Amino acid sequence: MIDAHHHLWDLSAVNYPWLMAPGVTRFFGDPTPIQRDYLMAEFRAEAAAQGVTASVHIQVGAEDAMAEARWVQSVADANPDWPLRQVVFCDLTAPDLAVQLDAFQTLPSVVGVRQIVGRAPDEDAVTGTNDLLDNPAFVAGLKMAGQRGLRFDLQLIPELMAKTAGLLEQVPNTPVALCHAGSPHDRSSEGLTEWAKQLHRLSDLAHVTCKLSGLGMFDHNWRPEGIRPIVETCIEQFGTTRVMSGQISRSTSSRLTMPH
Predict the structure, then answer these.
(1) Which of 192, 199, 188, 179 lies closest to 259, judged by CA?
(2) Which tens digit of pLDDT belongs to each residue from 81-128?
(3) Integer Cα distance of 80 and 220 in angstroms
(4) CATH code for the domain of 185
(5) Within a domain: residue 260?
(6) Predicted TM-score of the model (pTM)
């Protein structure tokens, strides 16, 4: 079994500004409980208890994306008995994108890129990440990633699915993995109905797969019965061959919900 979406961090090796910001509560909750190292030994012990034998590390907001990628590569090198791949952050609109991707692809563990389109409505209004969808360079970057054999990890909210689907139709050769089931942040009956409707715009695209991960970020007191309709909808729309699970070790799926 593969954990398709998890994070690690060594606070002495890589700087994560969002994680160490004092007194800042985010959409996923208070980061104070996770302001500590979370390293491979702890992750492996928890993941192995769930039957996991390999994993994919997803970038998690480091100040220096290359520093994070190199650190993750060092973790992979130090654990040859644990197949570990990583998805790195890279600005797909950057004018020197090819040079950046050349550098990332010198690391054997790199299999994809993530650039977050949307986290949560309130935060998106401040960060402006939704504007990626209006930037022609973003589509060009998605195409370049696919041409290089890289996948794209897509994090967004339901309100952006229709517009994003229009862009993804232009890049059918770039595999896309939808993070966190598309972040259904409104857990009311009406909210989940609208999420499921919008999700069809992405599930109808053959090159898009779905990750069941981060489902507690918008429901900090979740129960299985609250998660069940999300899981069932994703499997219904994407089918069992296009759905994967992530963040399934204890620390990443419990009440202490990992961000991003």
Answers:
(1) 179
(2) 999 999 999 999 999 999 999 999 999 999 999 999 999 999 999 999
(3) 35
(4) 3.20.20.140
(5) no
(6) 0.94
